[in-house]
Design goal:
The structure holds two protein chains of two kinds. Chain A is mainly α. In chain A, 48% of the residues lie in helices and 6% in strands. Chain A folds into two domains: 83 residues, no CATH class; 93 residues, no CATH class. A two-stranded parallel sheet of chain A has the order 1-4. Chain A has a two-stranded antiparallel ribbon with strand order 2-3. Helix content of chain B is 51%, strand content 14%. In chain B, strands 3-2-4-1-5-6-7 form a seven-stranded parallel sheet, with helices on both faces. In chain B, helix 8 links the parallel strand 5 and strand 6. In chain B, helix 6 packs parallel to helix 8, helix 8 packs parallel to helix 9 and helix 12 crosses helix 13. Chain B is globular, with a radius of gyration of 19 Å. Chains A and B meet through helix 1 and helix 3 of A and helix 1, helix 11 and helix 13 of B.
């Protein structure tokens, strides 16, 4: 592009000023956030936090004792950072207050891991009966995997169930189950991913309509 | 269709053309990759440099007319019904484009042609039908076709297809790929669909054509201005109280927003100037 050098220079000066003031503005926002009490900081909208960018967030985290361990400590960007934020002591009792949270998380993880088993024990039996369309996506969902389950599609909740294990729950031949679920071909003894769909059908004569 | 005529035909005599591109097409057949954004950016960078320009928009969007007012000519897209009745309707529909190009060559005012995604293939067909390439060569007009793409498989595929079509119908027009970093960097998980399109299609093309890397504006920093119908130059030239009035943000936040746009504009300007210089060396051999 052919540029008018004078006009270009004037605009370049505007750009430089805007960039410099933008940096100042960002530093000012970080300083203000550093000085906010935690409860007010927690109420700061995400759009305001987004303004300071990843570097600003790292500086903010480094200046807040509450976030210790979330980000590496850095030197202060200005002298106006409140000392209390840097030196707030962590009481031993505080550690124990975290314990219920840890227990809760552990319980949730254990519950998720045993979802398949629990679901199999507590859910009502499937209600599908009569002829089924050849398109398994139209079939009802299996509520559990047991010897009565038939004519439905089971969705795995966790990621620990293997096809062989599912066959054991169903009291079905593992080969038959694998034949019904060719979309898992090659998975072998590896567990199925969460959300995988297992087609369960014991009697193929129930299928209606033409095969495609 | 008349032949295009240039007011300065002597400028194409040498092996290296020293004039910047007078016609800048911005088009790719994938929508939403930032074509109008690139057109507006190119227009603003021209204005910053004191270079007059006009825009021909082959689309029915309001954005460019809102930003640039009467410098925009909207070419109504060819309608499918008309094309079915009369195959020659495409030539009639795009006559205003040809007229805009003629006018640009006559008065040496640069023309930015912004092509909407759905119109891209029709424009290619039109260029082939009227042999626009021969007319541009005869008029000694330098032209550049910018093909924007974002880091997304369909966008990259569209850019590759468009660049190929442009090479076929307008062989004398220099091509520039604009890698729009808006949706993330052009680095992909190895073996993913995006990675395949990038490695097998767009990356080789980038090596063989001019390349403009458009950085992403910091998240959230452009949207308030876009919503307020502002141009890049408006934002950078505005004082902080004005920015506050446009965006409703605090003074420090207004500084950040304006600074982010200025940083983007500075980087985009460097990238586009590099592309323009490269084009000068590439566009003469037709």
């Amino acid at each position: 592009m052919t540029h008018d050098p004078g006009q270009q220079t004037d605009f370049d000066a505007l750009v430089r000023t805007a960039i410099r003031e933008g940096r100042d503005g960002r530093a000012e926002i970080v300083r203000q956030l550093c000085a906010l009490p935690l409860e007010r900081l927690a109420a700061v909208p995400a759009s305001a936090l987004a303004l300071i960018g990843p570097e600003g967030l790292a500086v903010l985290a480094a200046h807040r004792a509450e976030f210790a361990g979330l980000a590496p400590k850095r030197g202060p960007i200005t002298g106006s950072v409140p000392a209390i934020a840097m030196t707030a002591p962590v009481r031993p009792a505080r550690r124990w207050r975290v314990s219920p949270t840890i227990w809760l998380c552990a319980s949730i993880v254990l519950a998720a891991l045993s979802f398949d088993r629990v679901a199999a024990m507590v859910a009502p039996p499937p209600s599908a009966s009569g002829p089924l369309s050849r398109n398994a996506s139209d079939w009802p969902r299996c509520q559990r995997l047991d010897r009565h389950t038939d004519g439905c599609v089971y969705r795995t909740g966790g990621n620990r169930l293997t096809l062989a294990r599912a066959a054991t729950f169903l009291r079905m031949d593992a080969g038959d189950l694998a034949g019904l679920n060719r979309h898992f071909a090659g998975i072998g003894d590896r567990p199925l991913p969460a959300g995988a769909l297992i087609v369960v059908l014991r009697d193929r004569t129930r299928l209606s309509g033409r095969s495609s | 269709m008349g032949k295009l005529s240039s007011s300065t035909p002597s400028q194409v005599a040498g092996p290296v053309r020293i004039e910047p591109p007078r016609i800048i097409f911005v088009g790719s057949d994938k929508g939403g990759v930032g074509k109008s954004f690139v057109s507006a950016l190119v227009a603003d960078l021209m204005e910053i440099g004191g270079e007059p320009f006009r825009i021909a928009q082959i689309d029915e969007q309001d954005r460019l007319p809102t930003l640039f007012g009467d410098r925009v000519t909207t070419v109504a897209p060819a309608r499918l019904d008309d094309l079915r009745r009369d195959p020659a309707a495409i030539v009639t529909a795009f006559d205003p484009l040809y007229a805009a190009i003629e006018r640009s060559l006559a008065d040496s005012v640069a023309l930015i042609v912004d092509i909407g995604g759905p119109q891209q293939m029709l424009v290619e067909e039109y260029c082939g039908l009227v042999d626009l390439d021969a007319d541009l060569v005869e008029a000694g007009a330098s032209a550049l076709w910018l093909v924007p793409a974002t880091a997304e498989p369909e966008a990259m595929r569209g850019a590759v297809r468009t660049a190929g079509a442009v090479e076929r119908v307008l062989p004398s027009v220099a091509r520039g790929i604009v890698l729009n970093g808006r949706d993330g960097p052009f680095r992909f998980y190895p073996g993913s669909p995006a990675d395949l399109v990038w490695r097998e299609g767009l990356e080789p093309l980038c090596r063989n054509t001019s390349l403009m890397k458009l950085p992403a504006i910091a998240p959230g920093s452009w949207l308030p201005f876009e919503a307020a119908g502002k141009r890049f130059v408006d934002v950078v030239a505005a004082d902080i109280p004005t920015i506050q009035a446009w965006t409703g943000r605090s003074r420090p936040a207004a500084k950040v927003l304006r600074g982010d746009v200025a940083a983007f504009l500075a980087q985009a300007s460097r990238s586009l100037n590099a592309l323009s210089l490269a084009t000068k060396g590439n566009s003469h051999d037709a």
